[in-house]
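Structural prep section.
Before we set up the soaks we want a predicted structure of the protein with uridine-5'-diphosphate in place, mainly to decide which crystallisation condition to try first. Input record follows.
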Amino acid sequence: MPFSINNYYMATVPTYSVVVPLFNESESLPEFIARTTAVMDALGQPWELIMVDDGSRDNTAEILLEHATKAENIRPILFARNFGHQIAVTAGMDYARGTAIILIDADLQDPPEVIPQLIEKWHEGFEVVYAVRRQRDGESFFKKFTASAFYRLINRITDIEIPLDTGDFRLMDRKVVDVLNRMREHHRFLRGMSAWVGFRQIGVSYDRAARFAGETNYTLGRMIKLALTAITGFSFFPLQVSTYFGFLSAAVALLAIPVVIVTRLMGSQAFTGQATALIAVLFFGGVQLISLGIVGEYIGRLYDEVRGRPLYILRNNPDEPVKKS
Ligand code: UDP
Ligand code: MG
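Run finished without errors. Recording the tokens verbatim:
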């Protein structure tokens, strides 16, 4: 990302960039900024707070701009519409200038007080320090169960090893972020991408709190979408499944033909009747449609990449200082 060196915060390069996606977080925002500022100021290094408003429908953007006029190290990035959490984080990483970049949610489920522990590991020489949830308050059994099943599935079928029970809350070294920023895929699964790049990685455990205010934006539908992105982004397994299944059913058919011939010649009625035929036809019709759908899933993603549209559209210039109103 090219920057113009014509404004105040370009003068010092911050050591830390804290990147926060925001979607309808007006209630948590002041509390989040206060707590994060207390933690980060205590470290005694220059730092910036990059807050990305992901097309919020409440007054998150106004509150954000308001805070930015008061604190010089707050850099607002305003999206023209809602692009989703992963894209919001991506935009924040594009504009982050720190030597270490910290991704954190605004709802205070990831306590900012954990950040110094992440930084400690970074000082020890780790380039990716991800936060591992020890326990999760205020989340349903269903959410926890699906989340854990999801991680196990990903680790089984993809080439990458994503640590269990981690979210996007993590610290990444400049080197890692530079690599990630060059990966412009539209369907993004940052946890996977940051595992894929390698480097020295380590986890730090913490207790995940309940949401400070508001509701989760990750509905079941969005979780399924993210799971699909993770799977299609890092493996061809679903495509291979139809190949395996094709071979398997061909083998079964080959074996079945002589069996049916022999039983018929022996006068048995075991393999007659429309029901049997109908079930077989419906079953393989279903399998074929599912296979087509899987292929379609990959083609759709391919199409998104080929079009090469920008990942996000901004309605402000993050390099320009926010004017006091
Ligand atoms: N978020 C976002 N865009 C969206 C949905 C969520 O930027 O379309 C932000 C949200 O404000 C929060 C973070 O992403 O800071 C995580 O979202 P949420 O708390 O809803 O997810 P959960 O913690 O339940 O997985
Ligand atoms: Mg949350």
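Observations: Residues 21-23, 25, 54, 82, 84-85, 88, 105-107, 109, 216-218 surround uridine-5'-diphosphate (ligand 1) (CB under 6 Å).
Flagged for discussion at group meeting.
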